[in-house]
Design goal:
This protein is of the alpha+beta class and 300 residues long. The protein has eleven helices and six strands. Belongs to the sigma-70 factor family. ECF subfamily. Pfam families: Sigma70_r2 (PF04542), Sigma70_r4_2 (PF08281).
């Protein structure tokens, strides 16, 4: 196997790890580029397990990136959402993977420190042992075990349940869009959970709510206002699956203006995630292969 073959074989796994740690397609691609350069320069004859080596390199590079972007995100204008990623149908068949890349989970991961995030992602999503993870994060196995316990408790206390994309959830999305565009506020209210939350990310580069909107009444009125001012005769709406969730893409003259991902639980919309920042939209229509690997021992 050549160096290119090994990197290409494991690229979906490496990209998934980097994306879950960074919440950004652009940053994940940068990490993979840096990791490939390191992989190209190493003496591969001395590497018994290429996948283990590549996962360690990507983890370390992701940690470096995450520490660097933390300050940048603290200065972000308005709410920050992860860069949406278009997911293939098979992602929704893997419940752990679908939840791990959901908008809600990615927001929870943002509240962890970089090491906690790396440990949680590698252990709870990808199934690596504490000992295996210790070699990547530069901690002892005992310390990693403690970090994992703390991170898991933090995540489980804040996680939000949702139903992956399906015929049923897509039908709810269609009803929501119809009600919003026709001004049927009661129909909207019937689709929203009482504690529904709407989060808009404009990044200071597009019009968006500067803080989360909560509650059925306020979210319904906000949705009607957006539909009234943002959807015109030239607007086209596409249905898609992003981050394992049903989504609607709003396009004007072929340009993606905003993406709306729907969090649905027990037949009601519990979360709406609207991405309007153009920096996060120009890659949003490309399907990205995601992979959790074969979940076999890492063999560091």
């Amino acid at each position: 196997m050549t160096e290119d073959d090994a990197f290409t074989e494991h690229r979906p796994l490496l990209f998934t790890i980097a994306y879950e740690m960074l919440g950004s397609v652009a940053d994940a691609e940068d990490v993979l580029q840096e990791s490939y350069l390191r992989w190209s320069a190493v003496d591969r004859a001395a590497i018994e397990h290429p996948r283990a080596y590549l996962v360690r390199v990507v983890t370390r590079q992701s940690l470096n990136h995450l520490r660097a972007v933390k300050a940048r995100r603290e200065d972000y204008v308005g709410p920050w959402l992860p860069e949406p990623i278009r997911t293939a149908p098979e992602v929704t068949e893997d419940a752990i993977l679908a939840e791990s890349v959901s908008m809600a989970m990615m927001l929870v991961l943002e509240t962890l420190n970089p090491t906690e995030r790396a440990v949680f992602v590698l252990h709870d999503v990808f199934g690596y042992t504490h000992g295996e993870i210790a070699t990547s994060v530069g901690k002892t196995e005992v310390t990693v075990r403690q970090i994992a316990h703390r991170a898991r408790g933090h995540v489980h206390a804040r996680r939000r349940r949702f139903e992956p994309d399906s015929d049923a959830t897509r039908a709810i999305v269609r009803r929501f869009l119809l009600a919003a565009t026709t001004g049927e506020i009661q129909a909207l209210m019937d689709l929203l959970a009482p504690d529904v939350v709407e989060i808009s990310d404009g990044g200071g580069k597009a019009t968006a709510a500067r803080r989360p909107i909560t509650g059925r009444d306020d979210v319904a009125r906000f949705a009607l206002g957006v539909a009234r001012t943002g959807i015109t005769a030239t607007t086209r709406i596409e249905h898609a699956v992003h981050n394992g969730m049903p989504a609607a893409l709003c396009l004007t003259d072929g340009r993606l203006d905003w993406l709306l991902a729907f969090e649905i639980h027990h037949g009601r919309i519990t979360g709406l995630y609207a991405v309007r920042n153009p920096d996060k939209l120009h890659r949003a229509r490309t399907v990205r292969p995601l992979d959790r690997g074969d979940l076999q021992p890492w063999k560091p």
